[in-house]
Amino acid sequence: MASPVRYRKDGHVARVTLDRPEVLNAMDLRMHAELGEVWDDVEADDEIRVVVLAGAGDRAFSVGQDLRERAALDAEGAQRTSFGSRGLPGWPRLTERFDLTKPVVAAARGYALGGGFELLLACDIVVAAEDAVFGLPEVRLGLVPGAGGAFRLARQLPLRKAMGHLLTGRRMSAAEAARFGLVNEVVPAAELDACVEGWVADLLAAAPLAVRAVKQAVLRSVDMPIEDAFAAEYPEESRRRASHDAVEGPRAFAEKRDPAWRGR
């Protein structure tokens, strides 16, 4: 049986593809388990500086949970899901990997619904094709957006706007998502890959330890009072300060040359 996840390393870039296009990249337990191994490897490999996450085919990024599998599990009396994935295959999933310091760039084409949308909400940069459609339809299925949608959408949108989508399952176009800052760019589908690669190039041009330090500081401090944020400790910043790269940047500027980042 073919793997539901494609994972390859391309220099300093990890490329992760949800690969079940025949079911619009719906996520079953096997996919979650394999993704968990991927995220472990990404964080452990210091040569990886950026992750690109995409869905196979041109119809969907992902429509979220495999509901046929869920129905079968329910029929067998399996434990029902709620908020979070603790104790389930692939835990902690990307939506709960709060300490993942590598930046994740997502390419969204077609449907990004339910858990698929929740994956995007957990990414750092999202580029959407004009045909992308976002939504959290769980309430129409007797479920809840348990992979963080209820929590992240309310933090990334004005509250009433978020509640309108969460309580009704209404969908959102790519243009609307861009208007509210949920995606970084919207481009024609034919330009999606090129646009994503532009973001990847910009990330690779930056010092990798600085990128990791900034991501960690932002995500850990986002709910803190500013005074507490300044006083907090960020391990990735301590690592950056003690690194070769912290000296290399100013030196390269003074010598009028491109910096040679070592990631250490």
From TrEMBL:
Biased composition (Basic and acidic residues): 236-264
InterPro entries reported for this sequence: ClpP/crotonase-like_dom_sf, EnCoAhydt_DpgD, Enoyl-CoA_hydra/iso, Enoyl-CoA_hydra_C
EC number: 4.2.1.17
Region (Disordered): 234-264
Biological process (GO), any one: fatty acid beta-oxidation
UniProtKB keywords: Lyase
One Pfam assignment: ECH_1
Protein's name according to its UniProt entry: enoyl-CoA hydratase
Organism: Saccharopolyspora dendranthemae
GO molecular function, one term: enoyl-CoA hydratase activity
Catalytic activity: a (3S)-3-hydroxyacyl-CoA = a (2E)-enoyl-CoA + H2O; a 4-saturated-(3S)-3-hydroxyacyl-CoA = a (3E)-enoyl-CoA + H2O
Family: Belongs to the enoyl-CoA hydratase/isomerase family.
